[in-house]
Recover the amino acids of this structure.
């Protein structure tokens, strides 16, 4: 499907426009010509925006920053898929060569009750920060650390923690889920920290607190697996199973720990 | 402020270099634990420096307000750093030491940094690794469970710690999590989607900041005993750079306009291995780890009119220009040397690719010698990233690379305490100028951000605050706040009301062209003089022709961008003035007039062994230069040679 050098594409873009959180939105259609197959999806939107500005219209608002697929700022639903058709790819790393000349492309914001729309394609994902705030850390004040090599960590454990820690917090997992569940995001952070020896002291308190904070914002997981398919970092849904196991255990463990005190 | 500061004093403590920081920490005034909650501190930015500072100051018990223009502190551009973080742990038993890291950093910075600061950086580097590991940063490990290290950027020891190709991400998430823990504890108030647009100084002291709520457009006043700026670098002056799209200089530049000196603005780092631009719509450039140069050979066709694909070219029609010119180091010459040589090839018409704007980085020989699977193990993720962007497979065709702006060594001037010349204003990380001199070593940016945030500012800020005990922060209703709030609102209204015809991006792109052509990899007097007048014209054009759609009371990305580009234009001019005055070549600053017969950078230590710190003298007036002499007591001044 890759574009040939020098040729350009024509795309019919149907994009969601919504002025603010409390106004009604709707689709707006743009005939986009001269699209280079080497452009990223966001660069295509940049071109559309330049045209809108030229015609005294308000450009399309979307969140973005690093454009290298690591900051997690960007994210939109493209042709019904969070981050678009290419697997393991954030919107900013999706290139127009993945589309065909003449395609109609439908662009919507991430939709979830926990992610209210701010404007056009930008949504408020701050509930993800609330989950981290509820325990997604290891409590060690600056200066209190021992030598880094004093706790050997088996390579498979360190690698497993890294697999989970690769999450970029974009929220595509929530957007892809029919229930708008936050399980993949939450379980990724829990597995990163709960796997490591440094994370054991707070393991059960962390698990209970993060899971329950998650449930106060997001829907329930019914094992559709859409989250893993949409994840730009291919975070595995196995982590959700580990989280569920730890959550059940945490109910007993936390009470045991209390009784020791 | 038009005070004359005279010769600047970096306030490096006396004594042997390895005792300075220890004795200084003892001599700094302390704030009693019970009194810390009486002090308000604003931290601007949540990258490695800002998040680490906000978390650590919160842990100490200060009342911290942490401001970011992102939706979450985890988005800051520190997250994109790939390679690693240096630390003088000597876990490899290969002769590394604090002194060696200090020595390498001063030398790598081409003798334009302050010895005292650099030594401290090397000293606390070991604590950073301990701290981050304790936080759960999943650094790469060996099978025995110990931390793994690699050699990076031509260093002769293995001192770089890494977490796959996502070291910046993991370190930032560690700092972010520490910060969120303090938010949960109520010690830090987190203010997101809010951008600092000005600094408030009253009676010679920092009183707070004025910021805009990016969601509602409301311009708000924030008062504090001290302000810590950790707002990153200014590489986006060049429009195209490897910086994130929103990275900007506004917080630092506004502080500069209120009196903070801007040091060595012309010191910018150009990274040799980026993916060349594919078309005029390119929004940013993507960096690829320079570790690729370990196994890739850089070449161009000898014939500028060559049209055959790379693999069809016989050996004798290729010019491996780095191997030819630098037989000892070959493809591993330092970043600035590799970059300039690539530019020469492209300028002379031998560039490759559809736009003839790159040089080949060829793995065919390594794949033949080591096998594709070993090369894949080493660089698989980079090859995949390259293919995703360019649609070319580096296993089959050589990569095309070209240098791009990557990091800015210059920044707001700070003393040993990381205090700017405006009392109560501290500057951390890439936003300050302090540790990298004229050139930064690979894997040292992460080290500096975290050193400043975790291990320097928590000590030094107390020394200033202790003297303010019993004083309340300035009321946000004070006329000083009101005046600056009105300035900010008026500027936004002016931008929105301008009935121009040019988009912000198009004007930004024009600035980028001027800067890249005349204040980029190689600079000369004629070019810089021309650039200064072109930028003056561009500034006029900006304010008469810019078109900013939308309103103020809503999320308006164009308005945000317009303010940032207006500041980039002013900073660009200062960069050119600084580059013009520095008639020597050093590190990332190459003046064509100052080179050896072989075309190598030639420093002039007799005339330029100083920090140039510029003072804003009012709209339209030339800035005034202050100097801080650099004294080298430990590392002997020598000319770099990579022949």
């Amino acid at each position: 499907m890759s574009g040939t050098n020098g040729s350009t594409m024509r795309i019919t873009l149907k994009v969601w426009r919504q002025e603010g959180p409390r106004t009604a939105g709707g689709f707006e259609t743009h005939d986009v010509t001269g699209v280079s197959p080497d452009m990223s999806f966001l660069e295509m939107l940049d071109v559309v925006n330049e045209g809108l500005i030229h015609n005294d219209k308000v450009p399309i608002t979307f969140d973005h920053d690093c454009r290298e697929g690591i900051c997690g700022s960007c994210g939109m639903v493209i042709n019904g898929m969070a981050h678009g058709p290419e697997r393991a790819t954030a919107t900013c790393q999706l290139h127009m060569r993945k589309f065909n000349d003449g395609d109609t492309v439908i662009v919507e914001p991430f939709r979830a009750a926990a992610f209210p729309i701010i404007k056009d394609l930008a949504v408020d994902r701050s509930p993800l920060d609330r989950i981290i705030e509820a325990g997604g850390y290891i409590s060690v004040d600056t200066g209190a650390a021992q030598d880094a090599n004093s706790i050997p960590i088996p390579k498979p454990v360190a690698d497993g923690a890294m697999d989970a820690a690769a999450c970029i917090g974009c929220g595509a997992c929530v957007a892809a889920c029919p229930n708008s569940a936050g399980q993949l995001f939450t379980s990724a952070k829990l597995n990163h920290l709960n796997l490591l020896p440094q994370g054991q002291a707070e393991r059960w308190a962390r698990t209970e607190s993060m899971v329950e904070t998650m449930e106060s914002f997001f829907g329930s997981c019914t094992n559709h697996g859409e989250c893993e398919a949409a994840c730009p970092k291919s975070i595995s849904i196995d982590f959700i199973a580990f989280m569920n196991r730890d959550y059940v255990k945490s109910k007993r463990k936390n009470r045991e720990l209390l009784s020791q005190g | 402020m038009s005070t004359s500061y005279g010769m600047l004093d970096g306030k490096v403590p006396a004594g042997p270099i390895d005792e300075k920081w220890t004795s200084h920490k003892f001599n700094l005034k302390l704030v009693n634990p019970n009194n810390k909650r009486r002090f308000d501190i604003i931290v601007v930015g949540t990258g490695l420096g800002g998040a680490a500072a906000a978390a650590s100051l919160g842990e100490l018990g200060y009342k911290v307000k942490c401001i970011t223009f992102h939706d979450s502190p985890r988005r800051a551009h520190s997250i994109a750093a790939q390679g690693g973080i240096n630390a003088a742990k000597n876990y490899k038993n290969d002769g590394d030491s604090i002194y060696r890291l200090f020595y390498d950093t001063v030398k790598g910075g081409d003798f334009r940094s302050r010895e005292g600061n650099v030594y401290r950086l090397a000293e606390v580097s070991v604590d950073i690794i301990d701290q981050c590991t304790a936080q759960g940063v999943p650094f790469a490990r060996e099978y025995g469970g110990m931390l793994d290290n690699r050699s990076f950027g031509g260093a002769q020891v293995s001192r770089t710690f890494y977490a796959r190709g996502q070291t910046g991400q993991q370190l930032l998430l560690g700092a972010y999590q520490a910060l969120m823990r303090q938010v949960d504890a109520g010690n830090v108030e987190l203010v997101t989607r809010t951008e600092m647009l000005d600094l408030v100084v009253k009676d010679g002291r920092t009183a707070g900041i004025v910021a805009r709520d990016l969601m509602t457009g409301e311009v708000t006043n924030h008062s504090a005993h001290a302000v810590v700026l950790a707002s990153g670098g200014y590489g986006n002056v060049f429009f195209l750079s490897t910086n994130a799209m929103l990275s900007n200089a506004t917080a630092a530049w506004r502080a500069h306009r209120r009196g903070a000196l801007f040091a060595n603005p012309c010191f910018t780092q150009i990274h040799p291995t980026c993916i060349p631009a594919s078309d005029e719509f390119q929004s940013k450039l993507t960096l690829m780890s320079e570790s690729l140069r370990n196994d890739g050979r850089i070449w161009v066709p000898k014939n500028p009119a060559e049209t055959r694909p790379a693999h069809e070219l016989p050996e004798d029609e290729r010019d491996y220009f780095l191997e030819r010119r630098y037989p000892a180091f070959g493809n591993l010459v330092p970043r600035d040397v590799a970059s300039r040589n690539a530019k020469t090839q492209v300028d002379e018409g031998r560039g490759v690719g559809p736009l003839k704007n790159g040089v080949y980085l060829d793995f065919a020989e390594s794949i033949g010698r080591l096998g594709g699977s070993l090369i894949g193990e080493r660089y698989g993720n980079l090859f995949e990233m390259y293919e995703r962007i360019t649609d070319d497979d580096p296993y089959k065709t050589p990569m095309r690379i070209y240098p791009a702006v990557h990091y800015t060594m210059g920044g707001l001037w700070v003393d040993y305490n990381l205090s700017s010349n405006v009392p109560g204003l501290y500057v951390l990380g890439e936003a300050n100028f302090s540790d990298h001199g004229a050139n930064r070593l690979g894997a040292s940016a992460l080290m500096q951000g975290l050193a400043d945030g975790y291990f320097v500012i928590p000590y030094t800020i107390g020394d200033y605050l202790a003297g303010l005990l019993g004083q309340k922060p300035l009321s946000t209703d004070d006329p000083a706040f009101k005046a600056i709030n009105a300035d900010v609102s008026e500027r936004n209204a002016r931008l929105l009301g301008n009935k121009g015809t040019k988009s912000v991006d198009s004007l930004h792109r024009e600035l980028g062209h001027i800067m890249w052509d005349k204040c980029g990899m190689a600079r000369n007097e004629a070019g810089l003089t021309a650039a200064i007048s072109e930028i003056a014209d561009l500034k006029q054009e900006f304010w008469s022709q810019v078109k900013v759609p939308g309103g103020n009371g809503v999320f308006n990305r164009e308005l945000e961008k317009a303010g940032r580009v207006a500041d980039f234009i002013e900073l660009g001019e200062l960069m050119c003035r600084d580059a013009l005055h520095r008639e020597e070549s050093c590190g990332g600053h190459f003046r064509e007039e100052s080179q050896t017969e072989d075309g190598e950078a030639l420093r002039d230590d007799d005339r330029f062994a100083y920090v140039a710190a510029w003072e804003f003298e009012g709209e339209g007036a030339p800035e005034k230069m202050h100097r801080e002499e650099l004294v080298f007591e430990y590392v002997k001044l020598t000319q770099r040679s990579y022949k």
User: Anything to note?
Assistant: Residues 253 and 259 of chain A are 10 Å apart (CA to CA). The longest strand of chain A covers residues 26-35. The helical segments of chain A are 41-54, 127-133, 155-165, 172-176, 183-195, 203-217, 226-230, 238-260. Chain A is about 35% helix and 15% strand.
